[in-house]
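Section 5.1 Outputs to date
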Amino acid sequence: MSSDIPKQPAVLPTHTPALFAEAVQRTVELLRAGELVAVPTETVYGLAGNAFDAVAVEKIFEMKGRPKQNPIIVHVASFETARSCVADWPEIAGKLATSFWPGPLTMVLPRSKDVPDVVTAGGATVGLRWPSHPFMQAVIRECGFPLAAPSANLANQVSPTNAEHVRRALGNKIALIVDGGQSQVGIESTVLDLTATPPRLLRPGMIHEESLLAVTGELTLGFGDSEEVLKSPGLLKKHYSPKAKLVLLSWRDESDLKRQLDGYSVALAKVHLIAHTKIPLNMELGRVSVIPHDAEAFARAIYAELHHCDEAGAELIVVEELPRNSEWRGIADRLQRAAA
């Protein structure tokens, strides 16, 4: 069917009940036929395929140019489907699911035989998430199978948080993009490895460690560099990267910022700056964007701002250093990898 993919993808809206139902029907038809669809989730837009169909999942890797060692999260919409994807469902998984699903939490568990090797990068575990976006839930339930769905963009680039970002990234590679509005979380899910004791936070997100600790009692941060098989996406050193060079800076005042920028040999008109607290008002920068000093608002807006910087031709993107606490840890993780 790939030869039938049009030069421009169809973009289906979902803002009325009739349009929502039509988009669900068309999406399910394509997914059941082994094709891929770009779909909205509350975190970022996903490139979805049947998680139990190895050929469909191979298409995801091919379309994204995704490294084969980078596993894909499997999305479910019921506890029954979740259990079909795993060989073991420990008590702690049930407690975490009750607390945070549907929502932006991925749990890493021993995989079942139904999950193909390509999904898990050949590993013995699988990451599971039950998304809260109503479109994603409707599609999974109608399909009757879980969906493998990494971000709907080219590998290592900035994740898409609206349908236009997907269209610009994938263009004629994909037949259908579903427009479900702006992603309301804005960065990828928190990933927690439940095969480790105590549970290990592999990727921080907008569900913070204090919230997780309230359920788990214990938590380990980070993943071991010696691990040969990645258990989660988002662990590669360079990831989420805009085309322009990105740096995280802290400045006392505008003269201090100017001194720091002089070291990058980029014309100020080509410098785009994203600030939350110290806003330069008298520098002739290409663009100054202000996102509120609020972690949830910042997460919701940051990827769209990075996309805008690239589209406007920025050569250097400066992001004001973030607060160093758990509320901001997921955002800091994404920006540090984008700057690598």
